[in-house]
Amino acid sequence: MFSVSVAHRGIRRVMALAACSAGLLPAITFPETARAQSQASLPVIDVVSATTVPTPATQLASSVTVITAKDLERDQRRTVSDALQAVPGLNVVQSGGPGAQTAVFIRGSNSNHVKVLIDGIEVSDPSNANRSFDFGSLLALDIERIEVLRGPQSGLYGADAIGGVIAITTKKGNGPPRVAGTIEGGSFQTFNQFASLSGSQDRFSYALNAAHTHVGATKVTPDRILPAGRQSFPNSNDNQTYSSKLGYDINQNVSLNWVGRYTNSRLYFTGGAVPAAAQSRSDFKQYATRGEAVVNLLDGRFKNYFGVNYTDVRFETYDPASPPLSVNTSQRVAEDWRGVFSVAPGQTLVAGFDNYSESAQTSSVNARTGNHGGFLEWQAEYAKRLFLVANARNDWNDAFGSHTTYRVAPAAIVPMSETKLKATYGTGFKPPALFQLYTKSSDFRGNPALQPETSKGYDFGFEQPAFNDRFLFGVTRYVNKITNEIASDSTFTTLVNVNEAYIRGYEAFAMLAVTSQFSLRTDYTYTRINATSDSGIVRRPPHKYSVKAIWNPTVPWELSATVITTSEWRDFDRVTFKTIDQQGYTTVNLATSYQVNEYVKAFGRIDNLFNRVTESPNGFLRPGFGIFGGITVANR
Questions:
Q1: Angle at alpha carbon of residue 251, lines to 242 and 48, rounded to 5°
Q2: What does the pLDDT look like over 561-574, one tens digit per residue?
Q3: Each residue of 270-293: b (16+ CB within 10 Å) or e?
Q4: Cβ-based neighbour number of residue 2 at 10 Å
Q5: Whose CA is closest to 165, among 107, 94, 99?
Q6: What is the CA radius of gyration of the chain?
Q7: Residue 630 CB contacts under 8 Å (≥ 6 apart), including other chains
Q8: Among 101, 159, 397, 543, which one is most buried in terms of CB atoms within 10 A?
Q9: 545, 523 in Cβ contact below 8 A?
Q10: 64 and 50 Cβ atoms separated by less than 8 Å
Q11: Which residues is 227 bridged to in the sheet?
Q12: What CA–CA distance (Å, rounded) separates 233 from 217?
């Protein structure tokens, strides 16, 4: 017979453990010794993206997955797209090897229904045909945490958050100066380097990072679609990313922060529906920066954030079959204010205003637009068992005018059983992209009368500890109805608001702490989509499973294994563009590291252990078996 802990002092520990297994928090990492494990309680991890205020995951109804720097280091994920592969509710599609165009689908919504933020900077590309973010060139080596917030979130985040939000935070300097360097090599002519300098002194903090990744030969073109006698070229990618984060406390009430990030990525790839006879080249360059002032008033009860953001993107493509060079550029300037007011213990009011202006220049578009928005949010806690988050927002867009969205998210912890019950209801919208509104070419024209795509979605579920807190499980049911989707008209010469999609499914998890050194976690996602067009259902598998095992056999030695399985899904055939059934796949990844001494760590990993040959999307091979290894040298 087993018992469930019901002591009030254990509530936060129990629910933190449940959140870990649900994907709300990273997989559990145990202290270095069994004695430490038996005496320590698990920390409660704060989540920021759900409310913009650091809040214990145990108090949130929202479905959030947090990936920490430790998770990234343990599993040796070098790109954000690789790090997102095992997240429940997500499907990551990369059209080629590293550096190739990469889309992320959250809970069956479109890839452009995901709002992506890096240190509070929106990084979508206004010159992209649907204004989405391409994850292909986003490295993970300087990232402190990734939060994946699922479900409609426009009540807080405004445009684009129909499917959810991915909020990324880079590392901040803290403590004595730390210098670190990593070198790694392996399959596919991989050669990666990373260097960092970070720390803090008195009122000043700093973090400076430089990363270079090179993958020289990844086979991505299936032999079956090559014309007779045509050579298959591997993809090649070279990425240089530089980032910095600086902070200065003027006094105890005023602080200044600055972040900057520059990416320069070059990709050689084989284009065309039928693979071309010569390789194309693309160059992606993005600069993103944010300056911020933080002002505390009323003895710290009223915290104000004033920010200015700027992004500049340049994307060049050279196709030898149809020169000259194609160039897309875009810019975005944004200003924002957010105020957090502690009204009373457990009662917080958050308010904010933001404004942005963006422009895009391509061969068929030269246009700009802007948006002004404001929101209010109330966050409440009652008796440490009832929790509520409610927000509402209004946006005024230059292209379509006013739009109002909202979200309500209550949660409760049941006495005695310690079951966490949760539910959310929210709305979302996405305005038309500049390409969709204003493009002009000989055979296709935009439609300035387009209206925003909109959504209404809800979820509800539970999380339950058992077996004296060592086994935890939960289920979340979700529904999202998307209307007014933008698609081509019957003549394929312009765009109209015609499509809609009804998405429903559930996410389930289970976690077992086998011993103090060994833990298991599994996730399952089911997604069912009824849509009026094929584009609303492709590349979203109905079933996805993942299993992760973490083992610390000794203090300096760590191992992890991840298995990801997706079922068959609908896709577009690369050559004919007809919808087909695409075969599912299973990938097994292994990683291990060993702390050699105080300064040196050795590591290695195997990706796609069983060399499963599969295409995702159709016509583009996923990388086969790969083995990699390297060392990190750092002062501690």
A1: 55
A2: 999 999 999 999 99
A3: bbeeebbeebbbbebbbbbbbebe
A4: 8
A5: 107
A6: 24
A7: 182, 183, 184, 185, 192, 602, 603, 604
A8: 159
A9: yes
A10: yes
A11: none
A12: 8
